[in-house]
Amino acid sequence: MDIKDTLTEAIEAAAKSAIADGVFPEGELPKVILEVPPQKEFGDFATNFAMQSARVFHKAPRQIAEELVKRIEGDWLDHAQIAGPGFLNFYLKGNVLYDSFQKILEAGESYGQLPKKDAPKIQVEYVSANPTGLLHVGHGRGAAAGSALVNLLRAAGFPVESEYYINDAGNQMNNLARSVNARYLELLGQEVEFPEDGYHGQDIIDTAQRIIDKEGDKYLAMSDEERLEIFKDLAYVEKLATLKEDLASFNVTFDNWFSERTLHPEAVKAAVKILQDNGNIYEKDGALWLKSTAYGDDKDRVVIRDNGVPTYLAADIAYHHNKYERGFDRLINIWGADHHGYVCRVKAAMDALGHDSNKLTVLLLQMVALYRGGELVKMSKRTGQSVTLNELMEEVGTDAARYFFLMRSLDSQLDFDLDLAKKKSNDNPVYYIQYAHARICSIFRQCKETGLSLSDKPELSLLTDESELDLIKKIEEYPEEIERAARDYAPQRIARYSYDLASAFHSFYNKCRIVGVEPKLAEARLALVTVTAHVIRHSLGILGVSAPEQM
Questions:
Q1: Lower Cβ count inside 10 Å, N or C end of the chain?
Q2: What is the largest CA-CA distance in the chain?
Q3: What is the pTM of this model?
Q4: Architecture of the domain delimited by 429-543
Q5: 508-521 pLDDT per residue, tens
């Protein structure tokens, strides 16, 4: 148990003691929230618990705080003070911080991996772009966010499965085939009218050219129907392979790739039959309609068209039914903001099927705006279309792209400064963090040269400089930061934490030498930077960003 847990229990015990003595009335205690005060004169930790419990205990916050202070005890506490309208500031004894840090040192590489018994099984589905073209920067933000969320939840102790839903059925695949076919014919000198709803990207031309390079004009003799079927499969295989390669280059992999094709027709029919049997589907104008208004939607939705063809919603109903049937306790989808209106109908369908729609959380991803030289970048220089994820990686690198995508919450618009992302200076946040790790690795090399090594029991009480204590406190915040970030599905908290940790390290580095100082102090400082390096690596690992040893 760390000191924050100990302090939380002491505050709760003090409140319960006051209730037992009749000083406070019975009531549900608010959650104890402890913060590190921005100024050191306000103690090591502070809480607004007295103010939060005023409604429960029907007393002024300062009265509550005074009663709590009288009842909080522990050999770890130097003293507590009441500040302002009822803040409680706690001042710990000097040995507490060092004892806690010694446990972190002993935890080694496991520090940051939180144990959790009987944790709910979570599935995270993200990206899920149609395999009809290249991934663009919007997909990149979703890929960074989804993979970082998976890493974060796993660090917080949850069993997590990541999934990519391949939209490989329906009109988009037919449009892909028609687009490749048109480019194939054009490249072979045939006159052809490009399909109105076709895909216009350079990658379609490249696909057609590769077919010609490999097979020549052998498909010209075929009928359009035969050629379209062949091109649909050839293009699909190529596009999916390219998509997987680009994601792998972006440090994104999936535990499962789920093909929409496997849902047609049987799984779709089965889901529709369940809804028919339980009275949640009715027929109107020859179509089958879901009674989604009965479950909070603004109107009922067509599931099977009057021509017998399933809608996209039908496949999504079957897909999400499949997810529930696989036994996940929580389902998290990351969708683009343009799917906002779709959330309610999918949740309605799950309730109609008899599932608990509260198990499904949809995180909506806002747009990305790229800026270069202060000007908005709208199109790719290479293709004239949207800037691709691959182009972004080529320009700024995978690490910078991922970190910049993760600096802001998913539900906020992201302005991505390409010039800043390429800077090799402290102005660039990811460079600033990575440089901290590289500096520590340089320290390790110097220590090795001088024969200084890490001690199992360094004299941590020698770490008394303000910068040393600040760095220790920042490190000790890490498990709680993971816990909070996982609770809120907020990997941006880890991005901010890693920056703050790097800042604390740089301040320490500028004040405190390791090589050349008294041996016991050198050992203690080496222990401090060893743990710092681990936490930087761990936090960057959650973000999917590398921790270089040299820069």
A1: N
A2: 94
A3: 0.91
A4: Orthogonal Bundle (1.10)
A5: 999 999 999 999 99
